[in-house]
Amino acid sequence: MAGEVPERPVHENQDRPALVAALKKLPPRQRAVLVLRFVYDLPVGEVAEMLDISDGTVKSQSAKGLAKMRHLLEEPVAAAQWRKHGN
């Protein structure tokens, strides 16, 4: 669910390569916003100032980027399940 904190930090997560690969598929602005917000843990206002965009743009790009990341990270799981069941 959105806003939930993972049980273990990303640097300890075995899925880190998948996260990095998904990040690389995002548009540059979305990637920058997500990295600054969630890797460097910067507040919305600071990210907005650094990227010369509004707070609202930081929020919308965060939401869009996270949605795209979820989609990208779910694709391999769905494909593996599909193959496993012989479809």
Walk me through the structure.
It contains 4 helices and no strands. With 87 residues, the protein is mainly α. Helix 1 packs across helix 4 (55-84), helix 2 (28-39) crosses helix 4 and helix 3 packs across helix 4. The longest helix has 30 residues, at 55-84. The protein has one domain: Orthogonal Bundle (Arc Repressor Mutant, subunit A), CATH 1.10.10. InterPro entries: RNA_pol_sigma-70-like, RNA_pol_sigma-70_dom, RNA_pol_sigma70_r4, RNA_pol_sigma_r3/r4-like, WH-like_DNA-bd_sf.
Task: Describe the structure in brief.
The protein has 87 residues and is mainly α. It is built from four helices and no strands.
Rg, please? 15 Å
The ordered H/E elements are HHHH
Work out the number of β strands.
Answer: 0
The CATH topology, please?
Arc Repressor Mutant, subunit A
Which structural category fits the helices and strands? mainly alpha
User: Could you state the CATH homologous superfamily?
Assistant: Winged helix-like DNA-binding domain superfamily/Winged helix DNA-binding domain
Strand content: under 5%
Q: Mind telling me which CATH architecture this is?
A: Orthogonal Bundle
